[in-house]
Amino acid sequence: MTREEKGAIIEELSEKFKTVPYFYITDASGMSVAEVNKLRRMCFDQGIEYRVIKNTLIRKALETLDTDYTSFDGTVLAGFSGVMFHAESGKVPAKLIKQYRKEAGNDKLKLKGASVDYSLFIGHDQLETLLTLKTKNELIGDVIALLQSPAKNVISGLQSGGNKLAGILKTLSEREAA
């Protein structure tokens, strides 16, 4: 690979890291060609871009960003590295990794590190944490539900009070008529 080709890859990766807030770095070493093809097919079906890239190129692309990714050096950016990009959710790649490991019946695919909204997660043990993270839309929905809850309580209280009052007046008027 020539210096110009490496520069173009670093430029492209740098732009990708800037525009996509969710990316996972995985270790798929020891996987057969058929297993890698299955992984790529699953990624494609779920809208995840999966690329195998040299660690030095990933490192140089990350160095161009404002976020500090130095904690990825050594542990994350060592050995075989595949990068999963997903533009809409930080959970989708985590779900895919878990699903792949379950379907394949082996643990060859491992999470080395992830960046979700520029928060860093290092190590395969962080996979469960990533699976439980709420998306931005889920958090907005929770906030809206919390804000609506007191108003709904007041409205239901007023409605039930009005119904009780109407029932009492009806009963009194029936007694008076009798």
Automatic annotation (TrEMBL):
Forms part of the ribosomal stalk, playing a central role in the interaction of the ribosome with GTP-bound translation factors. Gene3D superfamilies: 3.30.70.1730. SUPFAM superfamilies: Ribosomal protein L10-like. It comes from the Bacteria. The gene is rplJ. The keyword rRNA-binding applies. One of its GO terms (molecular function) is structural constituent of ribosome. Belongs to the universal ribosomal protein uL10 family. This is Large ribosomal subunit protein uL10. GO terms for cellular component: large ribosomal subunit. InterPro entries: Ribosomal_uL10 (IPR001790), Ribosomal_uL10-like_sf (IPR043141), Ribosomal_uL10_bac (IPR022973), Ribosomal_uL10_bac_type (IPR047865), Ribosomal_uL10_CS_bac (IPR002363). Keywords: Ribonucleoprotein, Ribosomal protein, RNA-binding, rRNA-binding. GO terms for biological process: translation. It comes from Larkinella knui. It holds the Pfam family Ribosomal_L10. Part of the ribosomal stalk of the 50S ribosomal subunit. The N-terminus interacts with L11 and the large rRNA to form the base of the stalk. The C-terminus forms an elongated spine to which L12 dimers bind in a sequential fashion forming a multimeric L10(L12)X complex. HAMAP family: Ribosomal_uL10.
